[in-house]
UniProtKB/TrEMBL annotation:
Keyword annotations: Membrane, Transmembrane, Transmembrane helix
Domain of life: Bacteria
Transmembrane portions of the chain: 6-25, 37-56, 68-97
Protein name (database record): AzlD domain-containing protein
Source organism of the structure: Paenarthrobacter aromaticivorans
InterPro entries: Brnchd-chn_aa_trnsp_AzlD
């Protein structure tokens, strides 16, 4: 099988997964337990995507300025800074680290 066939199969499976969601009864979706699970899965997915984007480059792991930016953003979030301050602090730390020659 070639790559395009696998891509089409993955697209079809993604579409079917979304389509199956429309057939789930509303009563099940309004359950507090399901709402909690859905919220937790969203947080986990976002955290994993953030880590993968910060640590991966191609097929390998890298330690560069993105790590410092992620740490600075985490500290700003911990201090309950506004979102714009979180983004700017992460970008500033990444720029400073790159200026210093790290990554």
């Amino acid at each position: 099988m070639n790559l395009w066939l696998w891509i089409l199969i993955a697209c079809a499976l993604a579409y079917l997964t979304k389509l199956v969601g429309y057939f789930v009864p509303a009563k099940l979706l309004q359950s507090p337990r399901i709402m909690h699970i859905a919220g937790t899965m969203t947080i986990g997915l976002l955290a994993s995507l953030t880590v993968v984007n910060a640590l991966a480059s191609g097929q390998g792991l890298v330690l560069d300025a993105r790590i410092g930016a992620l740490a600075a953003a985490a500290v700003a979030l911990w201090l309950r800074a506004p979102f714009l301050v979180v983004v700017i602090s992460g970008a500033a730390v990444a720029a400073l680290l790159r200026l210093l020659g790290w990554g």
